[in-house]
Every structure is written in structure tokens, then in C-alpha cells.
Design goal:
3 helices
Length: 117
């Protein structure tokens, strides 16, 4: 509608300016929407990185606090002691299994030897 009215009044310059105006307006709107989406993505990614850093520092502070207080050190010592006991218990159970196996072989050898006599 507007294009045809401009074309009647200003045949050459009206067509050129109208087409130029529509193209510029189209690209401005297109890039404006793209800019809004990219700005939102940039803001959210920065907020995510910042939140991760805050979480990391909070966790690190909690760990250092737990490591520095008396209860934290006591818990670490208890854990070490329990691991040591578990290791000793495994070693003892291996020795018991080994002794039982050797006794089994000795008893079976005696029984076998006794059957030949």
C-alpha cells in the first residue's frame, strides 16, 4: 500500500528509499533479537561460573574447617585406626586359611598313608 503510493509520487527515489528502509529495518530487528538472546546467554553463563566458584570456595572452607578443629582430627585418627584394624584382620584371616589348608593336606596325607598300611 505505502510502497505504491510512494511510487506514484516519487517513482525512482521513493522505490529506492522504501526498499533501503525496509532492508535496514529488517536487519536491525533481526540483529536486535539475536543480541538479546546472546546477552541473556552470556549473563546466565557468567552467573553459572560465579555460582560454581562460590560453591567450590564454600566446600573448600568447610573442608579446611573440618580438618583444623579437634573433632575433625580425632575422626581422621579413628578412620586410620579402623583401616589398620581391617588390614590386620585380613592378614590374620589369610594366615588362618593358609594354616587350615596346610592342616587339611597333612591330615589327608596321613589318612592316605594309613590306608596303605
Amino acid at each position: 500500500d505505502t510502497f505504491y503510493q510512494l511510487r506514484e509520487v516519487y517513482p525512482t527515489s521513493g522505490s529506492v528509499f522504501f526498499t533501503l528502509y525496509m532492508m535496514v529495518f529488517f536487519y536491525v530487528l533481526l540483529n536486535l533479537s539475536k543480541a538479546v538472546v546472546l546477552a541473556s546467554y552470556d549473563d546466565s553463563s557468567e552467573a553459572y561460573v560465579h555460582q560454581k566458584e562460590v560453591d567450590r570456595r564454600t566446600k573448600q572452607a568447610a573442608e579446611s574447617e573440618a580438618a583444623n578443629d579437634m573433632l575433625g582430627r580425632l575422626l581422621k585418627q579413628i578412620k586410620k585406626y579402623i583401616k589398620k584394624l581391617q588390614h590386620e584382620q585380613r592378614s590374620e584371616s589369610r594366615e588362618v586359611v593358609k594354616a587350615v589348608t596346610e592342616t587339611k593336606y597333612v591330615v589327608s596325607s596321613i589318612c592316605l598313608f594309613g590306608s596303605f598300611l
